[in-house]
Amino acid sequence: MASLPIRRIEARTFCHATEEEDRVATALGFACPEGETSRELLEGHFGNPLVRLTRRVEKAPAIRAVWERWTAAGLPAAIAKDLDARVDDHGFLNFRLDKQTAYRETLAVASDSDAIDVRVKLIAYPAKPEQTRRVARSVLQGAT
Q1: How large is the average pLDDT for residues 109-126?
Q2: Cα pseudo-dihedral 47, 48, 49, 55, rounded to 10
Q3: What is the model's pTM?
Q4: How many other CB atoms sit within 10 Å of the CB of residue 128?
Q5: What is the dihedral sign for C-alpha 51, 111, 118, 3?
Q6: Is 1's pLDDT higher than 60?
């Protein structure tokens, strides 16, 4: 089985004061089932308490497991529609997953700002935006 040209996956979300942290952690764990969750206490714009939960996946078998879950849910096809806007100059493929549907154990691309932010660091040589987009396109089409 060929390895994916992905260096790491980072998934993070915020838990607002009006949310139950264990439910947000459950949603994050469903969306990104591999990796350890780190927790960071923050303060919002108006002084409100926020908790940022992050999962970082760096080992190839774990990356493959996460990517296979996302592929089974049909996420690559949804992400590929606006691929050029999702790949940044630093080699990341960016997208957001719906936090509420993830809590209900369904994966979907987010349509609002209350989401799980996902950054997929792609391996592209040379590390230029055009090459990164080519790698992203091949990953999303399953040509690994």
Answers
A1: 94
A2: -100
A3: 0.93
A4: 12
A5: positive
A6: no
> Alpha-carbon distance 55 to 13, whole Å?
9
Q: What is the pLDDT of residue 129?
A: 86
- Annotate the chain with DSSP letters as a single string: -PPPSEEEEEEEEEEETTS-HHHHHHHHHHHS-SS-EEEEEEE-TTS-EEEEEEEEE-SHHHHHHHHHHHHHTTHHHHHHTTHHHHB-TTSEEEEEEEHHHHHTT---B-SSSSEEEEEEEE--SS--HHHHHHHHHHHHTT--
Q: How far apart are CA 20 and CA 139, in angstroms?
A: 35
Q: Cα(4)–Cα(127) distance, rounded to whole angstroms?
A: 16
Cis before 126 (ω within 30) = yes
Going by pLDDT thresholds of 50, 70 and 90, the confidence category of residue 2 is low
